[in-house]
Design a protein that fits this description.
The chain has about 110 residues and is α+β, with helices and mostly antiparallel strands. Helices cover about 30% and strands about 25% of the residues. The protein has three helices and seven strands.
């Protein structure tokens, strides 16, 4: 449940997920991403020349490998805020430029 709400709240993450999924397999017209309607995202990616719509399917057309832009070890250079969803209060603010990995996360 939280993931679906989080994707709805963070369009940037949703777009990245849809890019990676479209690279693997074309989306069909009317197809959802989980329970999310992604028709607008697919149209946006077509306008950005990353997808091509043909015969009721959305095909990845870029030479780029979209997962290269998505890291599981790091995040963007943007700032972020951790929010308590029950109380809607900020718990933590961090500038990602100041984040450094700890020794336990360093590949060997």
């Amino acid at each position: 449940m939280w993931l679906r709400q989080g994707l709805r709240a963070n369009l940037s993450i949703l777009v990245s997920h849809v890019e990676c999924a479209a690279f693997e397999l074309p989306f069909g017209d009317g197809e959802t991403f989980g329970k999310l309607d992604i028709a607008g995202v697919l149209k946006f990616l077509e306008e950005e020349k990353l997808l091509h719509h043909s015969q009721d399917k959305w095909y990845w057309t870029s030479d780029a490998y979209p997962a290269d832009g998505v890291s599981l070890r790091s995040i963007s250079s943007d700032n972020f805020v951790v929010v308590d969803a029950k109380n809607f209060s900020n718990l933590y603010f961090m500038s990602c430029s100041s984040v450094t990995p700890d020794a336990s996360s360093t590949p060997r």
